Amino acid sequence: MNKILLIIQREYLSRVKKKSFLLLTFLVPASFIGMMSLVVYLTTKGDDHIKNFKVLDQSGIFEHQFNNSNNLNFSYIKGNYEEAKKDIRKEKNDFLLYISSDYAQTGNVELISEKKPGLSVVNDVENQMETILRNKKLIAAGIDTAVLNSSKAKVAINAKQLTDEGEKDASLGATYIVGFVSAFLIYLSLFIYGAQVMRGVIEEKTNRIIEVIVSSVKPFQLMMGKIIGIGAVGLTQFLLWIILSTSLSTLAAKVFNKDNEGATKIEQTDHKSSKSMMVDTAKADNGNKVQQLLKAADTINFPYIIGTFFFYFLGGYLLYSALFAAVGSAVDNETETQQFMLPITLPLIFTFIIGMNVIVNNPDSQLSFWMSMIPFTSPIAMMIRIPFGVPVWQLALSMTLLVGGFIFTTWVASRIYRVGILMYGKKVSYKELAKWFTYKE
Amino acid sequence: MLKVSHIVKEYAKHRALDDVSLEVQKGTIFGLLGPNGAGKTSLIRIINQITGPDEGEIFFNGEKLNQTHINKIGYLPEERGLYKKMEIGEQMLYLAQLKGLSRAEAAKRIKFWFEKMEMQSWWKKKVEDLSKGMQQKVQFVATVLHEPELIILDEPFSGFDPVNAEVIKNEILELNQKGSTIIFSTHRMESVEELCEHIALINKSHKILDGSVKSIKNAYRNSTFRIGIDQKIPLNGFKTFDLTQQKTMDEGEQLTIKLKASFSTNDVLQELIPQTGITYLEEVIPTINEIFIEKVKQLN
């Protein structure tokens, strides 16, 4: 027993001490947060660069009707189309919006510039033109635009889930995201840490240190020590990620909330002009969505999710890494692993694809149920289902089956492993593996 | 000390060891000799409990071999290997602890050995930064660090330059004098002749010969001698011996002879001295290699 501890310690420390471990530990949450904040920043702030629009409106419909916004600045010019075109070439950031005199009939509008206009810019201008036209038509038809604006209804379904503790907000978007992220993390980590186990076994075999080690400990002890040691590395990494991510995102949320308060104030002060309000509400809308998501995140039972996550990560890891270890023992170098990798990786990839397409949409279907029970698929399938709510008996059954599953694969793998590690320079087939399995001690 | 009794080991259709028995006395140096693929490594792995025998038993100090004996054996495998990225010191601590030493005790002994072998500066080095010969030295020290009662060395001198081979050889002899029993396994039979008191010859998974080196050699002596003479003489019609070989050397002629029954070397000298000067006379003792080849011929 003491020897297993020594092996675990070596496997753990030799990996945690590596620079790449530290780098990964800090880079992943940092880049995750960084990406999130970039998305939030870009959606709220948009393009800061002010773009000048020179409107040459020969039809007169849009004269002095455009709204200046953060990055769009409209001015109106008169004169010849060709000359205006020449002028615009001199200014890099300027756009010429040409509306022909027969616009009412042909709908001919041109946007001329030195640089290519961005899609959002074109969209903005189009939206404004549509609003202007519609307002004109409404006024012509005798409808008050103010009344129309106030009659606009906004609908957001507030899904509530009935549980023992009463009503709970079932924020579907957040549920989906949590399920997706945790399933993806398990999928990824099974590959990463499973491959580490495999590489470790191959390293010991090609270094030929294996013979020294197994003259001191039993092959099973060595295999388990390696698996547990690397699993502990994985757990450490996840724990650090969770701690770092939560502290970083609380920080980010605080900063974001401050920003948002500012936005609401602007909205109030600009109340006079109904047109500029429209732009601002759109902005506030964006903010609300992020806030909604943050609020939804509060309704998710994180200790429960994290607890089950760790269980399914460990269970799935123990199940698959034993198989990875067996593969590592059977080959002499990494390139030979291909033929044995497929049956291991296939169920993982299969579950992930089915999970993302079927289970998310139908968390309680027959397929979802069975996939979350079979030990080879349950770590991923169950993690997708858990945020939607899973009956306790199903969870208990799935966990029991997973424990049984990894005991079984470890047993099978150890029988192959003990023979494989001492076989050098042999091309191994599945038939050979089966033979090893049946060898006596 | 170690008794191997009727061991059979089979790998898918191939019988690696067939009814092999041998006994190693405490405090001796034992040579396990045989060509490549004879089954030496299979036997060593069974003694190390890396694999188990299909049939037969092994006794260590009279007890049936079990897990408690693992810490009493030191094993230097033929295929040497260490963790390439790990520091030498850490690596040695790890290997010694796996053999049951405490960390403090292991550190003390490693320091002692590092000084003895002049490797003090290696502690923080990584294996990949060492030369092959240096790695061998590290591995040898790791094998004997826990002061095992039985040391098993598989091809111990391969990979060492002559100077370091001599160093290692002296260390082995010193360990033996301190009471360790040593098993040498090698296919280079001449290399251990002078070290081993007892040997066992293994060929094609069978033990074909064992015993003390002296007695085996005695058994294979066949009254053959080499005589140096300084003058050419007619080489036939000798009364006391048969001439088996004649060579012309720089210093004169060398005759290899076989005594005829009931004659001694004195009789030979008496016959030759009137005809020529004698520069030397020595008995031709077969080498283990020759004995092995002859034994294999006999069996076929």
Features of the shown structure:
heterodimer, A: 441 residues, alpha/beta, D-Maltodextrin-Binding Protein, domain 2, 2 domains, four-stranded mixed sheet, two-stranded antiparallel ribbon, 16 helices, 6 strands, 7% strand, B: 300 residues, Rossmann fold, six-stranded mixed sheet, four-stranded antiparallel sheet, 8 helices, 14 strands
In short:
The complex is a heterodimer of chains A (441) and B (300). Chain A is α/β, with parallel strands linked by helices.
Distance between the amino and carboxyl termini of chain B: 33 Å
CATH hierarchy, class of the largest domain in chain B: Alpha Beta
Q: In what order do the strands lie side by side in the largest sheet of chain A?
A: 2-1-3-4
Q: Radius of gyration of chain B, rounded?
A: 24 Å
Q: Helicity of chain A, in percent?
A: 55-70%
- The overall pLDDT average of chain A reads 80
CATH architecture of the largest domain in chain B: 3-Layer(aba) Sandwich
Class of secondary structure makeup of chain B: alpha/beta
Helix content of chain B: 25-40%
CA-atom Rg of chain A in angstroms: 31 Å
* Major sheet of chain B: 6 strands, mixed
What is the count of distinct domains of chain B?
2
- What composes the largest sheet of chain A? 4 strands, mixed
Overall mean pLDDT score of chain B? 88
Strand content of chain A: 5-15%
